[in-house]
Every structure is written in C-alpha cells, then in structure tokens.
Amino acid sequence: MENTDSRDGKLEFGTLEWCQSAGELGVRLLEEANLDLSEYEWGFSEEYTHIPERLRAGRDKAGYYFMLHNGKASGGDGLPDKCLTLPGFHATADWALIAHSSYFPFNREGWKERQTAHAVLRSDLQAAGIIPNWHYSYEVAGEKREPRCTVCGSPDHDRQDCPVWPTGIGEVLAANTSKETKWLRRSPELEGLPETEWGVPVFTKMTDEQKERFIKLLGK
Fold this sequence. Notes:
Oligomer: single chain
Helix content: 25-40%
Radius of gyration: 17 Å
Number of domains: 1
C-alpha cells in the first residue's frame, strides 16, 4: 500500500493521517477551551466521497469526526455511528470539490470567499447537468436572505439558537488560527486545474480536457 504521508511531514487532504490529525485537533481545541463539556451532546463529521483510491488506505469511507458525549471529547479518522446520531455538523462532499480549499481544519480565514466560490462552482456544475455531492447547505430555495447566525451563516436562526454550532463550541473552533505546515500537501489529481485564491476549482475556466478530468473525479 502506498504511504500517503509525505517525507517532509506534510499531509494531503483526506488521507488517513490527515483525517486522524484533523479529528485530534478538534478534540484538543475543545479540551483546551474553558467549556463545561458535560453541557454538550454534539458531533462533527465530514465524509469525502469519490476520494482517489490511492488515498483510501483500505477504508470503506474516508472522513473524520470529533464529538462531545457524556462529558468527554473524542475524535479521529472515521465516521462512527454514535457521532452521526448526535446533533451538530454532519457533511458529505465530493473530495475533488473541497480538497484544495480545506487544507486547514476550522480555519475561518477566507471563509466568505470560499463559500461564495463554492456556490458558483455548484451552480456552474448544475448548469452543465452535473449534480455534485454536497449534502450540507443553508441555502433557501428560491429566496435569498441575509444570514442571522454569525457562525454558520444560516438565515433561519440567530446565533444563540444555532443547532449546528452551539454557543461556545462555534467560537472555540472559529478562533483556531493554526496553519501548521503539515496541512499543505497538494493533490496531483487537481494540479493544473484553474482555482480561486482559496483553492476552489473554477469550472468555467477549465478547458474541455480539464472539465472531463474534473467530472471524472466527481464520479460522474
């Protein structure tokens, strides 16, 4: 099996090592915060679909999680059923959509630009008859609203009522400013594709060959 870790200590998005490190980072941030963990029953998970086989490392599903349950924080590689049944943030996205824009877990820098660029990418793909796998969104069909929640961006609830990022948890994770070099290994499958400054693919700027390659990475 190919070693997906880099000799220089950098990790590539979606590898077992990346997922394990991301889950452990979430646990560490929550444990280091001045929170009463017993007040929360909450989970976070991300699953990456159509991940290249070389990055799978024998896993049926690629992704990571962390959660607060019975007053304790736990997390790492994987998608345990217990975490998925907890209220919180649970997302599923095609690996190629977010691999180069999600190097740093919980990093808020550039999040508005990334959010806007991802919305454009999904719209451009849908216009081309391609439905990307993106199972988490706060979009309101047929209506645009200003966000009322400053953490998740939802137009449907105020910050103190957020079911996804409870008060305390959202602030702790949003305050993460670590940019450890180990997160900076790029993926060869995406090299050469036009991207925004924040790593979001730009479908309309791709050549026909690049579009075909990108669509195949989405499993379409």
